[in-house]
UniProtKB/TrEMBL annotation:
Region (Disordered): 522-549
Organism: Saccharothrix tamanrassetensis
Designated name of the protein: Tetratricopeptide (TPR) repeat protein
Listed InterPro entries: P-loop_NTPase (IPR027417), TPR-like_helical_dom_sf (IPR011990), TPR_rpt (IPR019734)
Top-level taxon of the source organism: Bacteria
Length: 549
């Protein structure tokens, strides 16, 4: 309906009411006639089940409960889609619901079409909403159907469509008014899955070069913004530069590390989808660079499975790239990703290949990094002496290369393994030297890791008060920096200290938080270990009267 059609129907008396429904919002009725806007969302799961039960019969829905849930999911709880699906099932009573679900799964919207009754066809109903849009707005709608990710923002749409920011926002507002997408908090826009499928179908009518160019632009937007975010998160990291973005594509401005983290959090699912889109487009350099640019964020947030998948894609992409360094780094980071997940056999295989390639190409810098990662892998396998040997090798290489930030990292590693082997004087000396370098070069992550090691040394040498202080300082830094991955490790050590002092409630609190984080990060071996520690603590409650001395 249009405002011109509705206005003559409006009542002249306050005792009368008219209800107007439609996919368009008709804002002029609100502005000029004081109409009340009542947005209708998709059905709840219970409402969707009730609708299907009313159409199909309660018994059939109860008998095929699991497939009913799948139908609700496949329809996205959209009322018309559910009604059409119910009609398909009712008119074919001999066909089990599993086959109806299979039809929805494969051709998708074709199952929700109807040749003779347009009002009972979801694609036709959606097409009616497009009629009042301009050609440009319809093109934006179509391109949104092929854009990577579950939702988007106005800056990303500007890149996708090659529109100025104001034009992109205007198009999004028009699509929102037509109920083709929904605006969500923090300036995000999302389509219902079925509407998105329809948009993707419409996009096939666009010339292939238009689709490919649009995808290339939005991929560049996400890649270059991710690189800018990564630089803010870890300014001491090796500086890599991707190819320039397409003309007119500008990264989203990020003023500081907090804004960078917020952007990466909000866009994470879209960035993973962007890497998959780059694979499909054959943009191998982009696939590799996205794995690299997301790595610090993945490690800090403990997104270990996503990190692994990202580097697997990057390793495949490196086979198409001429620079040997891309393959070396892909193997090294895959080795680290497997190490973090406790999959040490797989880790060693990748790290050995990385080290052999680095030696063949005389890449001393990469050899230093690989030795540091091998140290972590051998620690995970319980061989601290082998880990110490690799850490010392890395330290020598970083010093020879005059890389003080990474020298500090290797110093801290040597101190950590020396402490685990009981050589506390060597451990303390190396960690104190590392801490001085960390602070001189403003490396807060390195400082937090070194403080964690100093806490362990203090604990093992009986200086419990100093140990608690170091652990708490490390936790503050890790949390402030959003380095979620390291938090449960430090909590675990703090729990051991409290348990040794008889402070069982404090130990339990630290271990419970560590356990939740390990589980969230998919670190199953660590989770099992902490669960056993909690079980061993038993039902002991309350702290002993001992104080930290």
């Amino acid at each position: 309906a249009t405002p011109e059609q509705v206005v003559p129907l409006l009542p002249g008396s306050p005792t009368c009411t008219v209800l107007v429904t439609g996919r368009h919002r008709l804002p002029s009725l609100i502005d000029r006639h004081g109409a009340h806007h009542l947005p209708l969302d998709v059905l709840t799961t219970n409402e969707a089940r009730t609708l299907l039960a009313a159409r199909l019969g309660r018994q059939r829905v109860a008998d095929e409960s699991e497939v009913t849930d799948e139908l609700i999911r496949l329809c996205g709880r959209h009322p018309l889609a559910l009604a059409i699906t119910a009609r398909n099932a009712v008119t074919r009573p001999c066909i089990p619901l599993t086959e109806i679900a299979a039809e929805l799964r494969e051709p998708g919207l074709e199952t929700l079409d109807h040749d003779t009754d347009p009002a009972a066809s979801l694609p036709t109903v959606l097409s009616w909403s497009l009629r009042r849009l301009t050609d440009q707005q319809r093109t934006v709608f179509a391109l949104l159907g092929i854009a990577p990710g579950p939702d988007t923002t106005a800056p990303a749409v500007a890149a996708l469509t090659d529109l100025p920011s104001a034009g992109a926002r205007k198009a999004l507002s028009a699509l929102e008014e037509a109920s083709m997408l929904e605006r969500r908090p923090q300036g995000r826009y999302a389509m219902h899955d079925l509407v998105r499928d329809y948009a993707a179908t419409i996009a096939q009518d666009l010339p292939a070069d238009v689709r490919e160019t649009a995808l290339a632009r939005v991929v560049d937007f996400h890649l270059h913004t991710t690189f800018a975010a990564d630089r803010l998160l870890d300014p001491h990291r090796q500086l890599l530069r991707p190819d320039p973005p397409a003309p007119g594509v500008h990264p989203h401005p990020l003023p500081d590390a907090e804004a960078a983290t917020d952007w990466l959090e909000a866009e994470h699912a879209t960035l993973l989808a962007t890497q998959r889109a780059a694979v499909a487009l054959g943009r191998h350099q982009v696939v590799w660079h996205l794995a690299w640019a997301l790595d610090v964020f993945h490690v800090r947030r403990g997104c270990l499975r996503d990190r692994l998948a990202s580097w697997r894609a990057a390793l495949d992409a490196s086979a198409h790239l001429p620079e040997p360094t891309t393959r070396i780094r892909a193997h090294r980071n895959l080795g680290d990703a497997y190490t973090c997940l406790g999959l040490h056999k797989e880790a060693v295989g990748h790290l050995d290949r990385a080290l052999a390639l680095a030696a063949r190409h005389h890449d001393t810098t990469e050899q230093a990094y690989i030795h540091q990662t091998l140290a972590l892998t051998w620690e995970g396998q319980g061989d601290d002496r082998q880990a110490l040997n690799h850490a010392r090798h890395a330290l020598d290489l970083h010093r020879a290369l005059d890389q003080p930030v990474w020298e500090a990292d290797a110093l801290s590693q040597v101190g950590w393994y020396a402490a685990r082997l009981g050589d506390f004087d060597t451990a303390r000396d190396h960690c104190r030297a590392a801490l001085a370098l960390n602070r001189h070069h403003h490396d807060s992550i390195g400082e937090a890791s070194t403080l964690d090691s100093l806490g362990f040394i203090a604990h093992r040498t009986g200086d419990h008060r100093q140990a608690v202080e170091h652990y708490q300082q490390a936790l503050v830094l890790f949390r402030t920096l959003g380095y979620t991955y390291e938090v449960p490790d430090t909590l675990g050590k703090l729990g051991h200290l409290h348990a040794a002092l008889g402070h069982h409630d404090q130990a339990r609190t630290a271990w419970r938080e560590a356990l939740a984080l390990y589980r969230e990060q998919g670190r199953d071996t660590d989770a099992e270990r902490v669960q056993q520690q909690l079980d061993d603590l038993g039902d002991t409650t309350g702290d002993s009267p001992d104080t930290v001395a």
